[in-house]
Structure formats: structure tokens, C-alpha cells
Amino acid sequence: MNELKIHVERAVRPVYAAGRTKLRMRNELYAHILDIYEEELSQAKDERAALDATMSRFGPPHNLTTELQQTVSWLEQREGMLDKWLIRRSTENELQHAGRLATSYLLLCPSVVLLAAGVTWGMALLGHTEKGFIDIASDMFRYGLSVLVLFSIQIFAFTLIGTRIYRQMERSRWPKSPTNAVLLSIFSTFFVLASGWLLHLVMTGSPHESFTLLFPRWLAFATLMPFAVIGFAMAVRKETAVAAPWTGLPIED
Amino acid sequence: MSELISGKSLHGHLDTMVLAVLDKADGHGFDVWRRLESEGQGGLKLKEGSLYPALYRLEKAGLVSARWEDNETKRRGPRRRIYKITRKGKRQLEKGREEWEHFVNVVGRVVGAPA
Questions:
Q1: Which ipTM was obtained for this model?
Q2: Between residues 55 and 74 of chain A, which touch chain B (CB distance below 8 Å)?
């Protein structure tokens, strides 16, 4: 009963809520609408008439969306918004998805740099630092720009790598998929190390200076990062797989 | 007086009505709906999807609890959730009944149609 599923999905998809909550809404509402349909079908002349009567009894999806949204807590609504922002949209390919996340960071970061500059200038005004305004501005510009560019590249690359790892795990054909996932995670370890070194180079202007001190921290971070990505992919895999019949329905986002 | 009572007039009373229905017996959404219709003797006009926001509100407030029905049921489609009124829900229902009685008495006297 794809038409009934779509009717339910039109109501639930726009709701800002956690995936588990939306899945519960979908299942419950679908169970109910199927019950209505069975009832209508036993009385109607044909399937079309039964479907129309069912949807009329159930109500328009947009009204239900508003009512359902009101039952979701403020915190869970934020979780839903973040999910919606992070997850690839049906109209995007992998590159566009990674590009959107990296661009969002690029747009958000200048405000963070400006905030940091404001705090530093404030400290300079209060006499807590010996640096002048020009020095502070120059430092902020250099650090800010390098963080902005390199982190954006990292976000772009990790989104692509993360999507690949997730896809490999989704197929779950042992041993090929896990092997690919591990290979991708090893690649991401080297990527983090290389970009960390590059960031260090931009900030200090020297490829060696104090990098030996930073190296163990970067290595630890770089080694743990892929496992975090794999762990996250495993955690969301089941939920995503269960929701797939719904999220794959052809309705506008 | 055969006019149906529609969504707007029901607003604010649906939660208490659902609690009243669940006070008699536990039930899933469709069951609750059928009992609402039967108790209202066909006088209620509400889109059935609207029942679920009410159930979620009540569950969030701890007035009802819910569990998924057993896997063994032979019906087709996804499993349903069975709702049950809690002690807090029973207290709330009592309060709702008193408020309703008070409302009907006061408004009834004013409009010249005492209960």
C-alpha cells in the first residue's frame, strides 16, 4: 500500500525529531491507516474509493505534521534539525553532500574567529596581554584562515570517507566490506596526520619546530578517529536500515 | 441535535476523553478511536490521525504508558502500540471529570441550559 505509506510519510518526514521517534510515528500511523483501509475496503465499491475514504478519515498530512511536531521536546527537535543537516539529501550526490557540509563550516567559522578576536582584543584593552591590535589582528587572520581552510578540507574529506565506510558496512558482505572499511579508515588516519602537519606548518611557518611534541597527540587522534567513524556507522546502520523503506519513498523533502 | 462535534470544539477535551476510554480497558490507537466513536455515538468529527499527537502528549506527561503488541498477531502491517492508563493518568482523569462538571454547571446556568 505505497499510497498510504506516502500519505503517512508526508506527515512524518517534515517533523524535526530523532530517527527513533519518527520511526515509531511512521509505524503506528501506518498500522492505523491500514486498519482504516481494511474497514473501508469491506464497504467500498473499489480500491480507489476505499483509498480516498481512508485518506479523508485519516486527515491531511500537513495538519498532522504540526500536531506531531508539538509533541517533540525542544532538545529532540534540535537533534532532528542536526540530523537533517548532516544527512545526505535525496537530491544530493556524495560530492555535493560533502561540499555542503564544508561550505557550512566555512560560513560559520568566520564568526567564531571574530568572536575569538573580540575576546583577545578585550584582553588587550584590559591590559592582560602585551600584544598590540595589529599583532593580534595579524595572528587572528593567519590562524583563522588556516583553520578555516584546512578544517573545511578535512570536513569535506571525512564526509566522503565516512559515507564510503558506511556504504561498505551497509553491504556487510564478509570479508570484503569490512576489509574495505578498514582500508578506508587507515587512509583517513594518514589523511588526519598529513593535514595536521600542514596546519602546524601554516601556523608556525616551520615543518619541524615543535612538531615532534605534537606528533604523538596527532597520532592518537588520527588512530582513534576512524574507529569513531566506524563505531558511529555501526550504531546508525540498524536504525537507517529499518527506516530505509520510508526514507526512500519518492516525496519532496 | 444531530450536528457533529468537530476538531475545534474538541480541542482541549480530547486528552481527557482518551484517558476515559483507556480507563475502561487498554488498547491500541485504532481500538481507542473505535471506542471513542462508539461512546460518542457517532457525534464526534475528528481526523483519526489527530489521535496520535494526543496519545504522545499523554505518554510524555506520564499519564499513559505504552508497549508494542506481541509479534504473534496475525494481522498484516506493522505492530501496534498498546496504551494503558497510569495511576497519574487516573488522577488526572478524575481532575478532568471534576473540571468538566464544573464547566458544564457554570456555563449551563449562564446559557440557560443547566446540566
A1: 0.86
A2: 57-60, 63-64, 67-68, 70-71, 73
